[in-house]
Amino acid sequence: MPIPSHFTTPIKISAKERALSQIQRWIIDGTLLPGEKIGDAELAEALGVSRTPVREALQILEVQKLVEVYPGNYTKVKSLEKSDILKMYSTLASLHALAAETAASVIVPEQIEQLKQLNAEFSAAIEQGLPFQAMELDEQFHNVIVEAADNEYLASYSASLQVHIRRFKYVFLKQPVQATHVSAEEHQAIIEAMEAGDPERASAMMKQNLLRPMRELYAII
């Protein structure tokens, strides 16, 4: 029989992917606290899946260094080390500064408009007290610039760091609104530098946008 060429394939997500996504989110937003022991049976019951996909998800999370697995004993959420803030943020700041410097010369108008829309939504999420949504929009903003830079190595290292930085970033975005409005203002400065085709300004503002919260987080944790 002829296979239809025009159809919409439904998006399917496996039990393992669903478990991985939800457990990762719980670790990021603090539902599962640093150092907390977690059991696959309890997680499976909460997620409505069998223990196998939960165990598979925990194995991935162990590789991502979000949990620590002690075979035959227990699994616990990896603790947050204050010193990691300086290591991770400074590395990501350098990566994203390079992305901004590169993107400033090649970014297209459609991507500029996308940055403006994301920053508007980011500001609104902060105003409405939606820290997780604000965090996701902030990541999307940065990822547009990383994508515009078109450097697969930069993108890969950035994605790996983001998994861990999300935990610290969530703490920052839960602070009083006035402390996070500065991020939206810095985003606007980055957009203006992109529009002007100014790689040095774009790079400097991008680095500031990541090093400032690094210092503020280090002071409050």
From TrEMBL:
Q: What domain of life? A: Bacteria
Residue span(s) of domain HTH gntR-type: 13-80
GO molecular-function terms, A-Z:
DNA binding; DNA-binding transcription factor activity
InterPro entries to which the protein is assigned, alphabetical: GntR_C, TF_FadR/GntR_C, Tscrpt_reg_HTH_GntR, WH-like_DNA-bd_sf, WH_DNA-bd_sf
Q: Which SMART domains match?
A: FCD (SM00895), HTH_GNTR (SM00345)
Pfam families per UniProt: FCD, GntR
Annotated keywords? DNA-binding, Transcription, Transcription regulation
Which CDD domains does the entry mention?
WHTH_GntR
Which PANTHER family does the record cross-reference, listed alphabetically?
GLUCONATE OPERON TRANSCRIPTIONAL REPRESSOR (PTHR43537:SF24), TRANSCRIPTIONAL REGULATOR, GNTR FAMILY (PTHR43537)
Protein name in UniProt: GntR family transcriptional regulator
| Highest classification ranks of the organism | Bacteria, Bacillati, Bacillota, Bacilli, Bacillales
